[in-house]
Amino acid sequence: MAAQTRTAARKGAEALRYILTIGLSTMEGRGFYYPTDMVIASNGRMYVGNRSVDGVDRGVRVTVCDIDSEYYGTFGSFGHGDGQFVYLSALAEDSRKRIYISDEYASRVSVFDLDGGFLRKWGLRGAGAGELDGPSGLAIGANDTVFVSDTHNHRIQKFTPSGVFLDGFGEAGSGKGQFDLPWGLTVAPNGDIYVADWGNDRVQRFSPNGEFIAAYGTSGAGDGELKRPSGVAVDERGRMYVADWGNERVQVLDEDGRFLQKLRGQATESEWAKIFLDVNKEEAEARKRANLEPQIDLFDPDDPHEESSHIEKLFWSPVSIKLDAAGRLYVTESNRQRIQVYQCAAE
Fold this sequence. Notes:
Layout lengths: L6 E3 L6 E8 L11 E6 L5 E5 L10 E5 L5 E5 L1 E2 L5 E2 L2 E6 L4 E6 L4 E6 L4 E5 L12 E6 L5 E5 L4 E5 L5 E5 L12 E6 L5 E5 L4 E5 L5 E5 L14 E4 L5 E5 L4 E5 L5 E5 L7 H9 L1 H9 L14 H7 L7 E6 L4 E6 L4 E7 L3
Parallel strand pairs: 7-8
Antiparallel strand pairs: 1-24, 2-27, 3-4, 4-5, 5-6, 9-10, 10-11, 11-12, 13-14, 14-15, 15-16, 17-18, 18-19, 19-20, 21-22, 22-23, 23-24, 25-26, 26-27
C-alpha cells in the first residue's frame, strides 16, 4: 500500500474524520504509559488505564483528563492492595457512576468512584463458575450487570455490581459461540454483546442472554479480514468499529459484517506534546529535523508492525476502541502512549 494511502472506504460509506490526539509518554502525572483501555464517564472525563511494562512498577495508574486535554490527576498504583493494580486491563462505568477496572494478573475487578476513591474489589483466580483467569475486557449491561472477558478460561461471565456470579457462556474452540482468548467486548445499544475473539480473528455477537447470533470476520489482512482483534464498539446503526490489533488498523463494518472503511492512523501532536516541546527547545529542534515519515520501501510490506513502529502518525498497537454519546471514536494506542479521536459521520 502506498505510504500516502492511510484511509480507505467502500463506495458510499460514511467516513470517520480525524479530530485530534491526546497523550504524552510519562511514567507519572499528566500523560500515559502503555495505556490499555479507557472509558468516557458520565462526568465528561476520560479515565485511561496505564499498565506500564513488565518488571517496571512506575507508570501503573489511571490518568483522568478530558477531550480538551485538561488534566485532573491520577489514582491507583502498582501493587496487590486495595486500589492497586498489577496488570491493569479494562475499564467501564455503570449507571451509578462507579468505575470498574479489571486486573489481568490478579484476576479481579476493582471498583472506584469518579474521584478515584476505592470502593471494593472482587474476583478469585480459577476456572470454576464465577472464578476468573486473566480478565481483559469489561462491559456494563442492563441493571448494571458486569460482563467480563474471562480470557484464559475462554468464556464470558456475567456478575452483579458486587461480584456475585450470575451466568456465563462460551468455551475454548473455534466453533460458533466458542472462544480463543476473548479480549475486548461491548454491550451494543440494543443490548446485544459483541466480543473481540482474539485468537479466532473474528468478532462474535450474542443476545443479552448469551445466545449466539453471528460471527464477523475471517483471518487475514484484506478488507474485512482480521488479525488478533482486541476491541469492538457498536453504534446505534449496528455498525462495528474494530481494533484490528494484529493489522495495526481500525476497521468499520456494517451491521452484517460487510467492510465499510479502514484507518491506519492520522495522529498529530497532542496539546501535552506541544507544551513539552515549548519548554524543551532542544528536543523541539531535533524533532523539526527528523524524518517522521521514512520511505516505505525500507520496510517489509507484509509487516504492518514494522511500518507502524517507524511512522509516528500511524496506529501502533491500537488496543482499545470506544464511542461516546457525541459520535466520537477513541482509539487507544498502547505503544505510542496516546489516544486518537475521530468523528463519526452523522446519519
